[in-house]
Design goal:
Elements lengths: L2 H8 L3 E5 L2 H10 L10 E5 L9 E2 L2 E2 L3 E2 L7 H5 L3 E5 L7 H6 L1 E6 L7 E2 L2 H8 L3 E7 L9 E7 L7 H25 L13 E2 L1 H8 L9 H11 L8 E3 L5 E3 L10
Parallel strand pairs: 1-2, 1-6, 2-5, 6-7, 8-11
Antiparallel strand pairs: 3-4, 7-9, 9-10, 12-13
Helix pairs in contact: 1-6, 2-6, 5-8
Bound molecules: dTDP-4-amino-4,6-dideoxyglucose (0FX).
DTDP-4-amino-4,6-dideoxyglucose binds next to helix 5 and helix 6.
Length: 255
Amino acid sequence: MTQQSRQKEENLKVCVITDNQFIYEQFLILLEEPRYEKESFVFFSSPGNPLCPAKEAGGRTRIGQVDLKHATDDFFGRYDLFLSLHCKQLFPQALVDSRRCINVHPGFNPYNRGWYPQVFGILNQYPVGVTIHEIDGKLDHGPIILQRQVPVYSWDTSLDVYTRIQQLEVELLRESLPVLLSGDYRTFQPDTEGNVNLERDFKKLCRLDPDQTLTWREAIDFLRAMTFQGYRNAYFYDKEGNKVFVEIHLEKEQP
Ligand code: 0FX
């Protein structure tokens, strides 16, 4: 049996949990390939984070909601494989102990595990990229199946790097989905535990102290790490108490 046909032949039931519209829609496009049995993939998002059912040929793919903390063994038992495509919930130990669970993470483990890896990567200059790994119960942690870095240029904002990361995520999923499904891969453990950032660490960063002294390099790096069009991140309070949002525009001179 070829690797490509295994999912079809074995009728593997896959539970995909995603809180990210882009990855969800790109994944559905991927499943249009005839080697996948699209009907065997069931989609969920997290409570409080409803995604729009994606439009596709012949209708819309249904997407339910699942609260993993309160899900039963019966629910876990319905699937052979759990795939987290930016699922914002931590997988419970009972789930990771009983089923193969894989996470597609927009960061280069073990650096800046957790929230918004490229923001912290621009700030602390740790590598950024994509890691696909087995889930072991700790945040963005567990045996690595594959990973790849993306470059960060001096004129990049957080959005620029994130866009590059998302493109790489789709590329790696396209390349590796057959082996992710079949389990025919080798994993490795990173040498260190790395570091973790939480949402509250990002929120803390957002408030600027106008009297803080920085070099230009530090100030520019900080502002580009916080610039993501569509989100108002960095801010300060002026003397009158007005809250003022700040972002940066960077442009590389074209030859
Ligand atoms: O889905 P996702 O890209 O990823 C997040 C975590 O970063 C990731 O480590 C975790 N595995 C996954 C489950 O959740 O997050 P997002 O769609 O909420 O945000 C995408 C980017 O948008 C983020 O990297 C930075 C930017 N952003 C987001 C928010 C909510 C901001 O700049 N400001 C914000 O307030």
